[in-house]
Amino acid sequence: MSDVVIVGGGLAGLTCARRLQAQGRACLVLEADEVVGGRVRTDRVDGFQLDHGFQVLLTAYPAAQRWLDYDALGLRRFSSGARVWCDGAMHLVSDPTREPADLLATMKAPVGTLADKMKIATLRSAARAGTLDELFSQPETTALEALHAHGFGPTMIERFLRPWLGGIFLDESLTASSRMLMFVMRMFAEGHAAVPEAGMQAIPDQLAAGLAPGTVRRGAPVAAVGDGAVTLQSGERIAAGRIVVATDGTTASRLLPELPPTAWRHVTCLYFAAPVSPIGAPVLALNGTGAGLVNNVAVMSDVAPGYAPPGQALVSVSVLKDTPGDDASVAGQVQAELTGWFGPAVRDWRWLRSYRIARALPVRWPLERPAPVAVRPGVWAAGDFLTTPSIQGAMESGEAVADAVLA
Ligand SMILES: Cc1cc2nc3c(=O)[nH]c(=O)nc-3n(C[C@H](O)[C@H](O)[C@H](O)COP(=O)(O)OP(=O)(O)OC[C@H]3O[C@@H](n4cnc5c(N)ncnc54)[C@H](O)[C@@H]3O)c2cc1C
Q1: Which of 6, 33, 51, 150 has the most CB atoms around it within 10 Å of its CB?
Q2: Which residues line the pocket of ligand 1, CB cutoff 6 A?
Q3: Which ligand 1 atom sits closest to the C-alpha of 14?
């Protein structure tokens, strides 16, 4: 019999296991897949590293700082700010406090008034005030309502804030919680967006490598959670003193019907190999036109060279809209659209692969920090669906449940 069985080897389950073992408690992680990491995965295709969807680590995440060795991950940073495609040209919008050389270009960019651009700084200061607990106990509105309340004008919202925040929340409508807005602003203010040199999967791989040998059992999907035992799809029964269900929200509510169902935000991520980088800088490019399929573009190999083989560039494109049609026809539409942004050289791009991720981010309202509640006596749930849908939320939720189990 295992002391604690954790169902799911995503970031929540792995962090839970790390915390338990750090306190001397034995545990077993049962992961359905052959690979750990859940939604944080990287495929290797023709020498390119393809993350399952465009994803970044915000280095200020407190739980990531507690559990990850950033140096060993070889983190590569995005520069702050973005390029915004609108009015038929690409415009630079940077944080002048971090990139003073970009001040003039930022001031001139047709993405809002000077006052709008100054308001980014005041929003960041507001987001940094007080503790994280205080931030998560602020009255909650939608992110869009909060931006209006902060005084941003329509051009700033439509050309910059909607594509930027929409790409983070995977929600163009910006109906995510204002607390998520303030949390994200705070994390950007206190750190950087970064990816590991070896791809996002290096994060769960590093968490798993820190566990005692034999802790993770891969290819072990759990079919049922009962009192004091879990049953695998194979029929095998594993007794456990304590059980933590750390799957995605939809699976968790199937295994534990006491939990409410999870609604999801979706995204399609397309990857192209390009002979030359269309951007040439580690920066996000946003669609500020309000038209077309594309929301944001990043050249991953400009951020971390290991994402592409020598002499090639890896372009990642995120689409938040529904994408009817087969993958090849959507890739063709995206390529045609980006020819408008980057010129005829885009026709030389080679489409590598698309990821349609139907269950990317759970919709969470109200948005709170994880307060672990035993779903049944001796059975807990952990995961981003119970708190902020993010790497921080998943890891913090795993930690909080480990503490509850230890208590
Ligand atoms: C496209 C995309 C972009 C994102 N961008 C960002 C970003 O930029 N920054 C950020 O902070 N966050 C981002 N996120 C969110 C972040 O990746 C997730 O919040 C986090 O990885 C969730 O971790 P989790 O452990 O809660 O769940 P999951 O990652 O879903 O892990 C659950 C695990 O349980 C396993 N499992 C499922 N069913 C069973 C079963 N029956 N038996 C055993 N095991 C099972 C799964 O295989 C999986 O390994 C993004 C997510 C996606 C998909």
Answers
A1: 6
A2: 7-13, 30-33, 38-40, 53, 55-56, 221-222, 246-248, 251, 267, 357, 360-361, 383-384, 389-394
A3: 25
Q: Which two tokens stand for residue 173?
A: 């409508």
Looking at the CA of residue 359, tell me the nearest atom of ligand 1. Answer: 53
* Identity of residue 154: P
- Predicted model pTM: 0.97
Domains 2-41+201-263+363-406 and 42-77+194-199+264-362 share a fold: no
Classify domain 2-41+201-263+363-406 at the CATH superfamily level.
FAD/NAD(P)-binding domain (3.50.50.60)
Q: Low-confidence residues of the chain, pLDDT below 70?
A: 1
Q: Identify how many contiguous H helices and E strands the chain contains and give both numbers.
A: 15, 20
Per-residue pLDDT, 167: 97
- CATH superfamily of the 42-77+194-199+264-362 domain: Protoporphyrinogen oxidase, mitochondrial; domain 2 (3.90.660.20)
Kindly list the domain boundaries of the chain, sorted by start residue: 2-41+201-263+363-406, 42-77+194-199+264-362, 114-191
Which ligand 1 atom minimizes the distance to the CA of 9?
49
Mean pLDDT, the chain, as a whole number?
96
